[in-house]
Design goal:
- The structure is a single chain.
- The N and C termini lie far apart (41 Å).
- Helix 2 runs antiparallel to helix 3 and helix 3 crosses helix 4.
- The chain is mainly α.
Length: 153
């Protein structure tokens, strides 16, 4: 049985391991997430809606917008994670936290966004083999998806 990273002599404690836990543990995990949210609901709401608003505004940029949104997704996600770190440490809100992903490792994060874009496009291209390009055509058309069209093809 092969495990992730075993060919690189990775110590077992650093490997990703799936755990089987009782359903009650999942419930506790959800309760913990909700308690975390309540610690600073306004900041988490700001981070969530601010992230979405920035992505929407970026996507509105003619021609390059959708591509830029893919590139900047990891950078903006780091801003959300940094905001969560502020909450976990009970630190006060800092202006610019949502854009903090640009402060460190921005080139690597943008590269990761490019990889994300390549993987999504590859998935659409591979999917196009099986659906004769219908999904890609629908996504690029900008029109609402007609469910009946999908059912009859």
């Amino acid at each position: 049985m092969s495990t992730l990273g075993s060919s690189y002599n990775t110590p077992p404690e650093l490997l990703l391991q799936a755990q089987r836990l009782p359903a009650a543990q999942g419930y506790q995990w959800i309760k913990g997430g909700f308690r975390f949210f309540l610690r600073n609901a306004p900041l988490l709401a700001f981070l969530s809606f601010g992230y979405l608003a920035l992505i929407i505004v970026i996507k509105k940029i003619p021609l390059a917008g959708p591509f830029l949104a893919f590139l900047l997704t990891p950078v903006l996600a780091v801003g959300v994670m940094n905001g969560c770190r502020l909450i976990a440490r009970a630190e006060p809100f800092r202006y610019g936290i949502l854009l903090s992903g640009f402060q460190q490792n921005a080139p690597a994060l943008i590269t990761l966004g490019g990889l994300y874009f390549a993987v999504v496009i590859s998935a659409f291209l591979v999917g196009g083999i099986f659906d004769e390009g219908i999904l890609l055509e629908l996504m690029l058309s900008g029109e609402p998806i007609n469910i009946d069209l999908l059912r009859h093809n």
